[in-house]
Design goal:
Distance between the termini: 37 Å
Order of helices and strands: EEHEHEHEEH
Strand order of the largest sheet: 1-3-2-4-5-6
CATH superfamily: Response regulator
Helix content: 25-40%
Largest sheet: 6 strands, mixed
């Protein structure tokens, strides 16, 4: 059984593989977090997990990730606000961001949200892999 990390900035490495890419995951809910971890680990990413928007901004400033995944439901601020903060940092403007939004009328679909890709809950590993492939292909 997967448990939320005790340390919200827990780092994980991709097993025996040497990882050169770093992904920042901002999520609280266990199911999407498990899926993100599984897919990113399989792809060889080093993973940093935070459970808040403020934690995501601080972690991204500390170490510019190659990819950021943000669940719209965070514990302190809406995910869209965290994404706006991340995008306001010039060092992160070109970092690919994948947003996980709830089904239905989530405000994450607003055109004002600068994102490279949006996923809808419930999300599958295939959809996550496809989104990561899409945004990394577009990355400068």
């Amino acid at each position: 059984m997967d448990k939320s990390p005790r340390d919200p900035r827990q780092r994980e490495t991709a097993g025996a593989r040497e990882s050169h890419q770093h992904a920042l995951v901002a999520a609280v809910e266990p199911a999407p977090l498990r899926l993100f971890r599984s897919v990113l680990t399989d792809l060889g990413f080093e993973i940093e997990v935070v459970d808040s928007g403020i934690g995501a901004v601080m972690a991204a400033r500390e170490r510019c990730p190659d990819l950021i995944l943000v669940d719209m439901q965070l514990r302190d601020v809406p995910g869209r606000e965290a994404v706006e903060w991340l995008r306001s940092n010039p060092a992160l403007k070109s970092t690919p961001v994948i947003i996980l939004a709830a089904t239905g009328g989530d405000k994450a679909d607003a055109p004002s949200i600068p994102s490279d890709m949006r996923l809808r809950k419930p999300v599958s590993p295939v959809a996550i892999r496809r989104a990561i492939g899409n945004v990394l292909d577009k990355a400068p």
